[in-house]
Amino acid sequence: MRxxxxxxxxxxxxxxxSYTYSNPAxxxxxGEVTGRVVADTSGxxxxxxxxxxxxEVKGSANSQSSRGNGSFFLxxxxxxxxxxxxxxxxxxxxxxxxxxxVELGFGSxxxxxxxxxxxxxxxxxxxxxxxxxxxxxxxxxxxxGPPTGYAIxxxxxxxxxxxxxxxxxxxxxxxxxxxxxxxxxxxAFSSAIHVAPVGPHRVRFAITAGSGFQxxxxxxxxxxxxxxxxxxxxxxxxxxxxxxxxxxxxxxGRLRFRVVAAPGSPAPSVNVFDVRAGxxxxxxxxxxxxxxxxxxxxxxxxSIDVGGALGFxxxxxxxxxxxxxxxxxxxxxxxxxxxxxNAGSLACLGTADCPDPVIYSCSNGRCVFQEPAQPAxxxxxxxxxxxxxxxxxxxxxxxPSANAPCNGGLGVCGQTPGFTYVCIPNGALDCRFDPDVVPxxxxxxxx
Length: 447
Fold this sequence. Notes:
By secondary structure, this protein is mainly beta. The chain folds into 4 domains: 12-123, Immunoglobulin-like; 126-243, Immunoglobulin-like (Sandwich), CATH 2.60.40; 253-339, Sandwich (Immunoglobulin-like), CATH 2.60.40; 374-447, no CATH class. It has 3 helices and 32 strands. The protein has a 5-stranded antiparallel sheet with strand order 6-5-8-9-11, with no helix packed on it. Strands 12, 14, 15, 18 and 19 form a 5-stranded mixed sheet that branches. A hairpin with a 4-residue loop joins strand 14 and strand 15. The longest helix has 7 residues, at 338-344. It starts with 11 loop residues before the first strand and ends in a 22-residue tail after the last strand.
């Protein structure tokens, strides 16, 4: 099969000269996406491979880590458009990230193609922070418990870390019959997406809370759009403050996504839970797998279920905010074949792609374990033993001797437990004295 993104060439005939080419995409599995992650880790402008980068498919449990040479292999993707997310946290305040879309289609042979993306450059990620709040000034007792806030980037699927804010307020104490300072939830939140790649972002917000004596318990808002240029990599950006509103119950919004299942998977069921109403919808995808629902403004939780079928993995539950008159697009939610995901960890185009090229080799697109070469056994024979006698070559009595060459310089002298001197080939295992060698090879007289 042939990738539309892989380099191709034609065979050229110039006189008697013939030119041929090799296309590595021909060795890819159907639905395989591979590439190499690079970055300017030295700050000199030179790009080098980056290992340990998490590469995941948005809306899927399919993920891998980049290898020592920066390569990654994702297997089992289905036809359609996919968003790949690359992240690496260094633990030193500098995080790396990248978002890349890829389209998988069918070739002229009717088979789903694989794609080689080539070198993909990581950028320092951006921290997106901001605040959002309920559409009123709260008073004492308005919240019966800590409210919960959501800030969700529709583009990457990232869910922000959200913290409810408190303030000391003077509230009436019916037991003390006086006003006392009380820490109260204000209905405001701080939010932070710590690892955001350069590119477009679209953040929607929601708040849910136990209601007090006069206020409802759900508010929604957004989206706030933010395009992060490459010149902002490594910086912290603040979104505009957002004031949420009570959901519009008359004008619906749309929630749209596509459900894709790996071959052999049971037909997945779709669950859309309305947090505000406490009810669950079970829409049926159309013949192409699309779900397109008109819903009241609010917070929804989307999950896919295959009835506990073994060998298949479903994506994690997705939180989604629906806003009136807008489309909330979740992209593809994919049920993946666990065997395909696991096979991706040992996929390769060459031995350099394997986790440890010393003990693995690439064969037919897979890293295959190979037994390490065993060291040569010790030299044997009475003439070699006699050459290493203490009177001839001065072998010391503590084995092995590194300062007494033997056999024309091809080895060094050593002494067996039976006090027989032998010649150990250079670089060979001293099998008489190494306690880790079991069983002991019968490699010399007296051993």
